[in-house]
Design goal:
Layout (H helix, E strand, L loop, with lengths): L5 E7 L3 H12 L4 E5 L7 H4 L14 H25 L3 E10 L1 H6 L11 E3 L1 H4 L13 E11 L1 H14 L3 E4 L3 E7 L2 E6 L5 E8 L13 E12 L7 E3 L3 E4 L5 E4 L13 H14 L7 E13 L5 E4 L6 E5 L5 H18 L11 H4 L17
Parallel strand pairs: 1-2, 1-9, 2-6, 3-11, 9-16
Antiparallel strand pairs: 3-5, 4-5, 7-8, 8-9, 10-13, 10-14, 11-12, 12-13, 15-16
Helix pairs in contact: 1-6, 1-8, 3-6, 3-8
């Protein structure tokens, strides 16, 4: 990397958000560099379970909920575009939501809330394969628009497409400092020469708050991957969830833990996930445990992503804090941010995600205040 190189925009973070943004910018004729610290692209993307469904916990926030549904449309477009060349990485299945009566009371329109699905009487649960064992306090709803995405395969497909469009990708580069000056920005690394750019976007996931002054940090999510002869024909979402993977296994997820940057799996976390799986589907009792994973979701203090200019900075922008819906929303994030950066058109990004607006609006709920009701 030559010290004389200068890019229009440098993106710090090679996860799915950074990759989608880089491709969108390249399509608009921008000279883009992506800098990622790991030995492989991304972190949370590769560790994610992959359930890409707008969560019911956001139904009380109409603008954000609408954005999530638009994001799903953009994700489906990406799947149709990328899979023919890069291979299948998605799986469409119905989603069975098992909610408590108190959960229904939190939904703005109760049983008529959009996206909830159709009620499923207990007698009809027997038609599902395998038959789920739900506790008596659960009320079941079935929607047909469930989607599971293999995060790593999706990311590699976007990365390849971005590089084909002219994006320069620097892997294994750890940013130690970002200088934000009147005549440009400079990225400095733990090794190697600096990189210069007119503007910088930090999309470093859970590590974003360590590079720029925004309240984005890590939330640990543990999950278990099972190999079983049992074919799961739907996604089951309750407090935890079970989902079939595009690779044929079944994923059980996921915990939500505030443990800082500690990302090891724990005995208690894995035990809780396996207990849920076996209790809900006894057929999984003899399933082989193929993997246990722990990833760090990037969560913000507002409970929503932060997308836009960092307050008080001249050339520094952020795209982070997507929590458990990064796979779902990365393409729409990239599209909206590219329009803002290149054309000054930020209308595709809800105002509540603007860092300056979000951080000064006390009424925005934090993620800790949201009901835990699965997907």
């Amino acid at each position: 990397m030559s010290s004389s190189q200068r890019y229009d925009i440098a993106i710090v973070g090679g996860g799915l958000v950074g990759a989608c943004l880089a491709e969108e910018l390249a399509w608009l004729g921008v000279r883009v560099a992506v800098v990622d610290a790991g030995s492989d692209p991304g972190h949370a993307t590769a560790q994610a379970a992959g359930v890409a469904v707008p969560s019911l916990r956001y139904l009380g926030d109409a603008p954000f909920c609408q954005w999530l549904h638009l994001a799903r449309e953009a994700l489906v477009q990406d799947i149709l575009r990328l899979e023919p060349e890069h291979g299948s990485f998605s799986l469409a299945r119905p989603i069975l939501r098992a909610l408590r009566p108190q959960d229904l009371g939190l939904l703005p329109d109760g049983v008529d809330s959009p996206g909830l699905g159709a009620p499923v009487p207990s007698s009809e649960l027997a038609d599902l394969r395998p038959v789920p064992r739900l506790t008596e306090d659960r009320v079941a709803f079935l929607a047909l628009d469930g989607l599971v995405v293999g995060g790593r395969a999706y990311l590699l497909a976007v990365q390849a497409a971005a590089m084909q469009s002219g994006v320069e990708w620097f892997q294994g580069r750890s940013v130690t400092e970002i200088e934000d000056g009147t005549e440009g920005a400079i990225l400095r690394f733990s090794n190697g020469s600096p990189l210069r750019a007119d503007r910088v976007v930090v999309a470093a996931g859970a590590w974003t708050g360590q590079l720029v002054p925004v309240p984005v940090g890590p939330q640990r999510g543990q999950l278990v991957v099972l190999d079983s002869a049992t074919q799961l024909g739907y996604i089951l979402s309750s407090r935890l969830y079970l989902a079939p993977l595009p690779t044929g296994e079944i994923v059980v997820g996921a915990t939500e833990e505030d443990t800082g940057f500690v990302q090891e799996c724990t005995a208690g976390g894995v035990a809780g996930l396996l207990s849920f799986a076996v209790r809900t589907m006894p057929e999984l009792t003899h399933a082989a445990v193929r993997a246990t994973r722990a990833g760090l979701r990037p969560v913000s203090a507002t409970g929503r992503p932060l997308i836009g200019k960092v307050p008080g900075r001249q050339r520094l922008f952020v795209a982070a804090g997507h929590g458990g819906h990064g796979l779902l929303t990365s393409r729409l994030t990239g599209r909206g941010m590219a329009a803002g950066l290149v054309h000054g058109d930020w209308d595709q990004v809800p105002l509540q995600m603007c860092p300056a607006e979000a951080l000064t609006t006390a009424s925005v709920a934090s993620s800790a205040d949201l009901p835990v009701m699965g997907r």
